[in-house]
Amino acid sequence: MIVHTLEDTCLVYLLIDPATRSAVAIDAGSGRWLDRLSSYGVDRVTDVLVTHHHRDQVEGLPLLAAAGARIWVPENEAELIAGVGHHWQRRNLVNNYDLHTDRFSLLEAVPVAGVMKDYSTSEIGHLTVRTVPTPGHTPGSVSYLIDDLAFTGDLVHSPGKVWSGAALQWSYVGLEGAAMTMASLVQLLDHQPRALLPSHGVRMDDPATAVQATCRALQDLVQVRLGAPSGLLDKLEDPYVELSPHLLMNRTSESRSYVLLSDSGTALLIDYGYDLTTGIPTGGPRHVVRPWLPSLRALHRDYGIERVEVAIPTHYHDDHVAAFNLMRDVHKTEVWAAAPVADVLENPTDYDLPCLWYEPIPCAQHVANGAVIRWREYELSIHDLPGHTLYASAIGFEADGRRVLATGDQQTGSWQPDGTPEIPNFQYANGFAAEDYVASAALYQRSQPELMISGHWDPRTVGPEYLDELTRLGAEVARVHRALLPATDPVFGGAVRISPYRVNAVNGQPFTVRVSVPAELVVPAGWECRRVGAGEFVVVPLVTEPLRQVPIAAAITRDGVYLGQLAEAFVDVRLS
């Protein structure tokens, strides 16, 4: 392999196969260098590997695509290249506190041949390519390991320098990209590259020294701007708190995840959302939300775990499940979930709920609430746990002689006899009902756990006083709601629901929706709609142009009284 470095709007690397006079390009730059291909002994570029979506990297993609090159892009940034038109339509420009540099994107979409999945190894053209997640300059950036060279995009410029300070500031008051850059650089060294080749800057033939200098400079920046070091590298090197010899808590993740170790050398995860994150995620478009697997390096190094066999969620929220699909792809991890939770994970578009993950998460087992399942030497009991959300589970098991109950985000575990209160963590939009905490307190009394572990708070040693406080709190939660609210909330209480809540439709082709109660379905003028069964409707969209998030509604009449359009759903319509 011959490597030529082309100076363009970014450094473009041509990786040439002399035998076929073909090349693979790392990034595209402006694409104007295509006119000089023959001077490098190249007749054609077969493929382009994009490190990140910024316009200085990808402006030339239309030229390369027209010349027949296949375009490969980071999975997390595909929507900023192949779907950038949708991005421009929804990107907020006014009163904007989102500082992600996603406005430095292509003006128009370019079709891609495929995506480069994190941690994958692919055959691209004449090369074997390892894709490594390296968030920092952007959340979705990747580096490519080819032979012993690391093509790092704009992760690092030169020893002690990065290409952009503005790109490191993802939120208005943070420096999330700086912390992530440090973590990415340290993990990149695990692969022992011979050299780092950046998109802007100079080749670095002593990667360890370059990484150390850059991490020092970034720590100085964080210290000056935020008044304290990030602490993320300490968490990367020591992510786990040992609750007992076979039960670990991952302190780097949001939400916290837990690892149950088997003597067979394998592991089971309870929850696994955003590992080694800079804070609780706040949602947003797909390209700003990126799971990755940094804590697993310590699980292998310190505990000899070769594979995580199973992951079980306490509930469906993205901060508890974001990494599940990635774990399945990388480690063949199976997801086992309570049946109601599994249905949300596998069919997210059916539900109008906060904090849903973007893609379906297949579940290998749908476990009935109340069932006991066996994994290796452990038995785990799965219990219905409504409160924080309607679709949630408590997971009970014994580890190292102690009864443990994982309760997700149900409550804080903060109560102390000195008056420190326990906080019930209910959100109405999650399907909360007034009696939920009465039910969960009764479960705790039946289960008599000795340790309760949760998503965002410290593990709680449990005794009778604490269980009695949860019983008192459950009754109080029910009392205040009975006193404040009428018996039912037909609008926001979830009694009326259209499913699916989000529909992808084709112009002129029918789709079916169901309404949870007797209703009439209201659709846009000109669309066809007919009832085909109790609560079931067939709709045919008729449009002249593609449309996004077209609302439809369920109109309710009860006992002869019209109550109005009490539930909505949304339809995306494409022409073909």
Structural summary, described in words:
It is a single chain. The protein is built from twelve helices and 32 strands. The protein is about 20% helix and about 30% strand. The strands form six sheets. A seven-stranded mixed sheet has the order 12-13-14-15-16-17-18. The protein is globular and about 80 Å long. With about 575 residues, the protein is α/β, with parallel strands linked by helices.
| N-C termini distance | 43 Å
Tally of helical segments? 12
Give the total of beta strands. Answer: 32
Proportion of helical residues: 10-25%
Q: Can you give the mean pLDDT? A: 96
Instruction: Extract low-pLDDT stretches.
Output: none
Task: Name the structural class.
Answer: alpha/beta
In short:
The protein is α/β, with parallel strands linked by helices and 576 residues long.
Features:
globular, alpha/beta, 576 residues, seven-stranded mixed sheet, six-stranded mixed sheet
What does the secondary structure layout of this molecule look like, with pairings?
Blueprint: E1 2-7, E2 11-17, E3 22-26, E4 44-49, H1 55-58, H2 61-66, E5 70-74, H3 84-90, E6 114-116, E7 121-124, E8 127-133, E9 142-146, E10 149-153, H4 176-189, E11 195-198, H5 207-226, H6 232-237, E12 240-244, E13 247-250, E14 257-261, E15 266-270, H7 296-303, E16 307-312, H8 318-321, H9 324-331, E17 334-338, H10 339-346, E18 365-367, E19 372-375, E20 378-384, E21 393-399, E22 402-406, H11 436-447, E23 451-453, E24 460-461, H12 464-484, E25 498-499, E26 502-506, E27 511-515, E28 520-522, E29 528-533, E30 536-540, E31 547-558, E32 561-574
Parallel strand pairs: 3-4, 4-5, 5-6, 10-11, 15-16, 16-17, 17-18, 22-23, 26-32
Antiparallel strand pairs: 1-2, 2-3, 7-8, 8-9, 9-10, 12-13, 13-14, 14-15, 19-20, 20-21, 21-22, 23-24, 25-27, 27-30, 28-31, 29-30, 31-32
